[in-house]
Amino acid sequence: MNKTELVNAIAEKSGLGKAEAKRALDAALEAVSEALASDDKVALIGFGTFSVANKEERTGINPRTKEAITIPARKVIKFKPGSELNDKVK
């Protein structure tokens, strides 16, 4: 499902127009992005939790040259599905 299909599904299930559904989806995604950018956690009960994790600097190997390289520390976004979502997928 792409964004257009998601907007259409939201419009159909909520009774909103497509333009209103797109604005609602964009606003929700922006709110989640802003929360994650400020290292907050976003918990949607029954759906799942988005969070930010810190990955430490580590040593890796360049597959072409087999030389050791340093992989810098970075932040990654994690998603842990909720139990209701897991039950629907099974």
Number of strands: 5
Major sheet summary line: 3 strands, antiparallel
Would you identify the regions where 5 or more consecutive residues have pLDDT less than 50? none
Q: Beta-strand percentage?
A: 25-35%
Secondary structure class reads alpha+beta
Overall mean pLDDT stands at 95
Give the helix level as a range of percent.
40-55%
Distinct helical segment count: 3
- Gyration radius, rounded: 19 Å
- Report the end-to-end length measured between terminal Cα atoms: 19 Å
Shape: elongated
| Order of secondary-structure elements | HHEEEEEH
Order of strands in the sheet with the most strands?
1-2-5
Layout: helices, strands, pairs:
Blueprint lengths: L2 H12 L3 H20 L4 E3 L3 E8 L2 E4 L6 E4 L2 E8 L1 H7 L1
Helix pairs in contact: 1-2
